[in-house]
Amino acid sequence: MATSANTDAVPPGYTPPRLANSGRRRRAVISLTPLIDVVFILLVFFMLASSFLDWRTIDLAAPTSAGAGSAMTGAMLLEIRPDGLRLSGHMVTLDEAERKIMAKVREKADQRVLIKPADGVALQDTVSVLDRLSAAGVANMSFVRSGSR
Questions:
Q1: Mean residue pLDDT across the chain
Q2: pTM (global) more than 0.70
Q3: Which contiguous run of DSSP H or E holds residue 107?
């Protein structure tokens, strides 16, 4: 007995299920929380990755020997004190010091400038003087420390 099974046959009265589409389009709801999280992560990344300071280096050569007395002849001594600058024993402003040092450097290109910060002077003041002289073109600068240290 041969039976033919028709599996594609639809039973009578059967209606296929329909999707719940009533014909209106539903608006997608977008949550702003993940978007805010991404913006904060990007903000933190760029804040950490960027630099807000202008980092420049100042080349200073460490003294090779302690008794370099002959190298100090003809050098200009610029003292950085809490009450101001002294250039060769005279109180000057930074502009005057720069102008006088540059006049000497024009006469003698390898003019040595000795910079002596006094006790209690802020490091930033010393770096500001070094930066100013370096930007003006003074190439031969050295630090001098007081004899008590």
A1: 80
A2: no
A3: helix 94-107
